[in-house]
Design brief:
Chain B: Pfam families: ACT_6. The structure holds two protein chains of two kinds. By secondary structure, chain A is of the alpha/beta class. Chain A contains 15 helices and 13 strands. In chain A, strands 1, 2, 3, 4, 5, 6, 7, 8, 9, 10 and 13 form an eleven-stranded mixed sheet that branches. Chain B is globular and about 30 Å long. Classes of the chains: A alpha/beta, B alpha+beta.
Chain lengths: 447, 88
């Protein structure tokens, strides 16, 4: 028994906000496909509520036995556009509602997978799903949606980019929260346990458990002990701390999988902030030495942080997956919000930051009168960064009707609150109206 | 099953005695004890063996109640957590 190690673990859990962000059960719905949509929905409800019936209970048992908070219990399913296409329906809101009902029955926090993968073109169900997004998200509470519009292997579907700009604007008019539940990806991953972008890929096993860890507070506390030390010491400290956090994720994930009798998939090594004090990625960057997140030097600090988290985590678990890195959602991070309010963090800088960390323009509130073409153009820019750099990027922007730059919108809970950020007033109408596909990039001659 | 009990708070007379009494009620065996003062805080760690794993939640709840009354942070955690985090 090593008192110092026990004390360290206790400290992380008690005062540095260390938690398991999520245990997520992925469930394949491929065997629920039916030409009759009512029958398909019944099969979906039955399968999800049967396979995940013990998810919440097992999660609570682990919380009690190990003394580790598990913030969320979630389910992801096969992209609904693939499941619903056979029905020939012209509206998939019904499918979203059945997922919502299943989530409510199970007592889980979110269900993800109201999704479509359209990077190279539309199949029959994809456009129907995109058209259904605003109503599906406005009329449900637990359902999360995502659309993959690009990839390094196949380029960017600019028709989908245009359609999604329109869907985001339409959704915002129904309910401001709809777009907090919609992520538009390039290079989406198949085993992501985080929301709102999680879905269960078609190449995954029938049922699987994935775990997502958190822990920016723990990294910050560790860095407070190496003030003034050179960058290699900082990187080493982050690696060691990430290792310990990830070991906890591996333990919880494998115990959960074992108790639920399903295979354990991956640990997602992401540093996921919450609006709570001391649980902020921005504060980690500021501890590294950036005066305020968003100023010069932020990209370098973030690149190092993101890389060190991966290096530390990779050895700590048997399979790494998901998005793995550092998240930079504005509304969910107290340090980011502070910097926006102080005028030191802009969308342009956030875009640069997304080139070196996981995901992208995340939880950013923008004026409600932002043209749909501007939102599409933001999606296209992010997708291009992901496509060229072989990484996942995403957009989750939230137009807030009736609000302008300088005002604030409250989302509540883990989603926090956000100041409305300025977008560039020049509108790239002609770019978006072209449509078509941006061809896949060359994978040689990298400069 | 093996577990680690941690007690953190302001030092006073009888903490170890009270905790041990509570554990004895459930036939919990104390394998190892370490006690120190860190940053003016009383920090005690015990490695214990719980004969009936089903009683874990009940023992943990009772310890937590005791902690709340005595203004101490008392927590029981499965040993596997510490092994996973600190051993390769």
């Amino acid at each position: 028994m090593d008192a110092k190690q026990i004390q360290e673990t206790t400290q992380m859990l008690a005062s540095e906000n260390l938690d398991i962000r999520t245990i997520t059960m992925g469930i394949s719905l491929l065997d629920c496909i039916d030409s009759n949509s009512d029958r398909a929905c019944q099969k979906i409800y039955d399968k999800v509520t049967t396979k995940a019936q013990n998810l919440v209970k097992v999660g609570q048992q682990i919380e009690s036995k190990y003394g580790i908070p598990i913030a969320n219990k979630r389910v992801t399913v096969t992209p609904i556009s693939l499941i619903a296409a056979a029905s020939g329906d012209h509206d998939y809101v019904k499918y979203a509602k059945v997922l919502d009902q299943a989530a409510k029955t199970l007592g889980i926090d979110f269900i993800g997978g109201f999704s479509a993968l359209v990077e190279k073109g539309y199949q029959a169900g994809d456009q129907v799903l995109i058209k259904s997004l605003p109503a599906a998200l406005a009329e449900t509470n637990y359902v999360c949606a995502s659309v993959n519009v690009g990839s390094s292997k196949s380029g960017i579907n600019m028709d989908a980019v245009a359609d999604l700009g329109e869907a985001v604007v339409a959704g915002s008019k129904l309910d401001v929260m709809t777009n907090a539940k919609l992520v538009i990806f390039c290079n989406a991953v198949q085993d992501n346990p985080f929301m709102a972008g999680g879905f269960h890929g078609v190449s995954e096993p029938d049922v699987v458990i994935n775990a997502g860890v958190s822990g920016p507070g723990v990294i910050k506390a560790a860095l407070e002990k190496v003030k003034g030390a050179p960058m290699d010491v900082v990187a080493e400290t982050i690696k060691k701390t990430a290792f310990k956090i990830t070991r906890m994720g591996q333990l919880v994930g494998s115990v959960a999988a074992d108790q639920l009798g399903v295979p354990f998939g991956i640990v997602d090594l992401s540093l996921a902030p919450t609006p709570l004090p001391g649980d902020s990625v921005a504060e980690v960057l500021e501890e590294i030495g950036v005066a305020q997140v968003g100023t010069h030097g932020t990209t370098a600090a973030l690149a190092m942080l993101n890389d060190a988290v991966k290096k530390g985590g990779v050895m700590a678990c048997s399979h790494v997956g998901g998005l793995s890195g550092a998240f930079i959602p504005v509304s969910e991070d107290a340090g980011m919000i502070k910097s926006v309010v102080a005028g030191n963090l802009s969308i342009a800088k956030l875009e640069a930051m997304t080139a070196v960390c996981s995901v992208g323009l995340d939880m950013i509130a923008i004026p409600g009168d932002t043209p749909k073409e501007t939102i599409s153009a933001m999606i296209a820019d992010e997708a291009a960064i992901g496509m060229i750099n072989n990484k996942t990027t995403a957009v989750r922007v939230i137009p807030v009707p009736g609000k302008q730059v300088g005002e604030t919108v409250k989302f509540g809970g883990l989603l926090g609150h956000a100041p409305i950020m300025a977008v560039n007033p020049a509108v790239s109408n002609r770019l978006i109206h072209r449509g078509g596909l941006i061809p896949a990039p060359i994978h040689s001659f990298k400069n | 099953m093996k577990a680690i009990l941690t007690v953190i708070g302001k030092d006073r007379v009888g903490i170890i005695a009270q905790v041990s009494q509570l554990l004895a009620k459930y036939q919990v065996n104390i394998v190892d004890v370490s006690q120190t003062i860190m940053d003016d805080n009383f920090v005690m760690m015990m490695m214990v063996t719980i004969p009936l794993a089903d009683q874990f939640a009940q023992i943990d709840a009772e310890l937590e109640n005791f902690g709340n009354e005595a203004h101490l942070e008392v927590k029981l955690r499965n040993t596997k957590l510490f092994e996973a985090m600190h051993n390769i």
